[in-house]
Amino acid sequence: MSLKKNLTFLLLVFFAVYNAAAQNLISGKYSEEELFQLLTPLDEWKPFPVLDDRAAWQNADQEMMKEYLRYANENMDYDWPYIPATKSLLIDRTGDRDEYQAITFEKRRMLGTMILAELYENEGRFIDPIINGIWSICEESFWGVPAHLPKTREYSGLMDVTRPFVDLFAAETATYLAWADYFFGEKFDEISPQIRKRIRHETQTRIFEPLMNQHHGWMAANANGRPPNNWNPWICSNWINTALLLADDEEKRAAQVYKAMEVLDEFLTPYPEDGGCDEGPSYWGAAAASLFDNISLLDLATNGAFQYVYEDEKVKNMGKFIYRAQISEDYFLNFADADPQPTMAASMIYRYGKAIQDPDMMKFGAYYRRENDFTLPRFHYFRNFFEVFMQEEFQKAEKGLPLPKDVWLPDIQVMVARDSEGSTDGFFLAGKGGHNDESHNHNDIGNYVVYYNGLPLLIDVGRGTYTRKTFSEERYSIWYNRSDYHNLPTINETTQLPGSQYRATEVSHEAGKNSSGMTLNIAQAYPENAGIVFWERVLKLDRGKKVTINDAFHLTQSNSLVQHLMTIYPAKVVEPGVLSIPFEDAQGNILPFELSYDAKSMVVSVEKIALTEPEDKGIGQKWGDTIYRINLEYQSIPAKGKSTFVLKRE
């Protein structure tokens, strides 16, 4: 081979290796052998002080630790419940998932609290309750939840114990047992060697072997090409946590961690460059936030070898999403299955902001620091150990809400605009494009929300209670998942359909000093039989004045056309062309808004949505029994037409 050909070959190899590393940010920098060399050996791995290091535990926040002790004392005689088969069968028989989950989640939270209480007190009083908790959990047939079982007759709501697989909560369970073993292993051995032996046996059988030898759907893109969602980093964070603490063989320990890193890249590589979480802020806490959990654990276990990940622009944007998607102190964007008022994992957000050197994110996290509320969060148990050792810094940290004036996330096609930077006063408008195969998808292309002074005016209803129907073929029979219960039109009696082919096109965004808006064509979000040539929607905020929704359309058939608007207020027509919405401010004062429409073309009806189904329970918990749908029905439909809605204070 000539010198020129040799050089060409070497360059091709170099670029191939470089591109692979660039595509695999987490697993591409180090080989498995290099990781083996980097990982702190198990017998030296001390991520948090051991039980006997009492001086170090004095540095844990004493107020928090006393609160965990108080709760554990109140539950000293907790009777670790057996979960009968009929509870598991409910998911198949009635669709209910909550009865089973309430028991299993509480058992784990109780175990986690008792671990913290014993770490604080160190008198041995909670060792027996902890052992009882471990034994009870190890005797469960499935560490996950019945809602995550395959929906086949073979299962019918009961786990096949001969074929273990790992769901979210099986992985979470392993984390609790791993930390119990780390802190109290020697205490357990004084009582019986069977305790730690059982922990390792169950973890090996239920977690390590399935993860290393079976493909799980959450590990990579699905058959339709949809990238993994929050399950991927959430499970990986518990996988890495458990492997670092329990995998006794050093080579196998490194192999476990390395495979988890490869799986993580299946989540990170296709993630939008703008950092946008299509699952919404309430799932961000288990998506981008769990990615941070993984990196922080890897970095801790390798003496800083993963610091480089925090310098990646995408990883930075993934962190910033949480405050870019904020509406007000209590409310966040809740497109798709997200919640309008999610809980903020304040300490984790602060740590993420510190890692990527983002002062706004740090201030945001510090703002949500819990004052006098130290209830153990349900999930992400290991975050609590970081939290109890950072309170002195956390308390002194600067607090604030960035509340950016304009946000545009071009990859997930979400816009945010408000009247004033750093303030919830006045109007807030957000809209979305995207496609209808996003994670936790609702059929909602072209949907938008309007808030005023930080409170809802026109809403996205969001999700209700999860039941068997939620993630089944019946998903889009649930009303709040359908486009006709969003701020969208029903065209020729046709609504949007699920699938990545149903999407926004010709999407653009423009923001200036006095206005901000987005334009998109939503025609492709509807099936062909809807008869739409194009449907251009323009969402616009004129700062301090009004919100305008302009639609221009071209139809091949004109059978029927209804525009829908969702609100929490009993709107009514006060005169032709003017709909009054009795908005209520934070003090309980009524500040009416008027929505103007074309009275010559449209007839208005307002219906109160009856919350009667099991899935509706969650809607009532979030919004109360006050969901109204405004229907503006065209009386005469031109083949080519326009409509304008203007929303402003009366």
Strand order of the largest sheet: 9-10-11-12-19-16-15-14
Uncertain residue ranges? 9-21
Fraction of residues in H or I helices: 25-40%
Biggest sheet: strands, sense, closure?
8 strands, antiparallel
Percent of residues in beta strands: 15-25%
Number of helical stretches of at least 4 residues: 19
Average pLDDT for all residues: 95
Distance, first to last CA: 81 Å
Please give the number of β-strands.
Answer: 19
Radius of gyration: 27 Å
Oligomer: single chain
Shape label:
globular
What structural category do the secondary elements indicate?
A: alpha+beta
Describe this structure in words.
This protein is an alpha+beta fold and 650 residues long. Helix content is 36%, strand content 17%. The protein has 19 helices and 19 strands. It has helices at residues 3-23, 32-38, 54-57, 62-74, 85-93, 98-121, 127-138, 168-191, 194-213, 231-246, 250-268, 281-284, 288-301, 313-324, 346-355, 359-367, 383-388, 391-396, 617-623, and strands spanning 406-409, 414-418, 427-432, 435-436, 448-452, 455-458, 489-491, 499-503, 505-511, 515-521, 532-542, 546-555, 561-567, 572-575, 578-581, 593-596, 602-608, 628-634, 640-649. The protein has an eight-stranded antiparallel sheet, with no helix packed on it. Strands 1-2-3-5-6 form a five-stranded antiparallel sheet, with no helix packed on it. The chain has a four-stranded antiparallel sheet with strand order 7-13-18-17, with no helix packed on it. Strand 9 (505-511) and strand 10 form a beta hairpin. Helix 8 (168-191) packs parallel to helix 10, helix 10 packs antiparallel against helix 11 (250-268) and helix 15 packs antiparallel against helix 16. The N and C termini lie far apart (81 Å). The relative contact order is 0.08. Mean pLDDT is 95; it is low at 9-21.
